Amino acid sequence: MASSPPPSPASVPATPPPVAPRVGAPGVVKIGLEKRSFDDIYHFLMEASWARLFVIIAAIYLSTNVVFATLYVLSGDSIAGAEKGSFADAFFFSVQTLSTVGYGVMSPKGLLGGTLVTFEAFVGLLGMAMASGLMFSKFARPTARVIFSSRVIITTRNGKPCLVMRMANGRGNEIVEATLRVSILKPEITAEGEKMRRFHDLVLTRSQTPLFTLTWMVIHEINEASPLHGETADSLREMSVRMIVTLTGIDSTFAQTVHARTSYFAEDFVWGGRFVDVTSQLPDGRLQVDYTKFNDVVVDPKDPVGEAKSSAAA
Question: Do 247 and 153 share a structural domain?
């Protein structure tokens, strides 16, 4: 009797490469810290997206003009060439003063008007300097655009269980002397019974590369010395294991150090399988990289790691 053909490998549904690395740990609630909202505002603005930064600057700019326009209206006849009590005229006069434009149609009138203009011009000078410095620092800051695979694979390579993940350089330049570090955060109990979470570095088959241009397959052999030795999918979930991946290198365009990082959790691990190949050679000899398949994973039911996981689950 003819034997039935072996089952075809099952494909894991693909997800697009992440726009930004996932770095935060879910479900973390911090209590007991003193709230100091304005002590680190520069760091907050540097970390904010460009859209949020523009909205914040626009809101401060409009609010400042509204405040000074109100003061002009309350001060009475303090603007020459403007209708007395007109908030619109006062607002647009404030815009001209704050930006030091001064079209010549309206001008300060009287001691109170001159005092308000002096103070507003000073505020505008400081605001322009701070906004310009902030935007220049944010614009000139070099950043790495590294694409990390959305999944980590526990598979068999050369007869040995290995952890495999994939990375890619999302820009057309090069990251020189790129160094990769992968750590596992898992709970432990000391001899005294104290519970704690510790980082364990994973030994990689290649943790450095002179040029990171296209893709990088990161491999860690799970042997007796590995922090993942003897672990299963269930044990990783029970321990709430978190894997941290950090890349550091020198951007070839800016000649400055850049870094990128991401996190993986127990639900991101796929047991048994491989990443779909994304590189191919065109007829003219050029190398083609298909990033639409970057996160595609093919699960092989006959992979020893997958079979071991299935047996443990059973």
Answer: yes
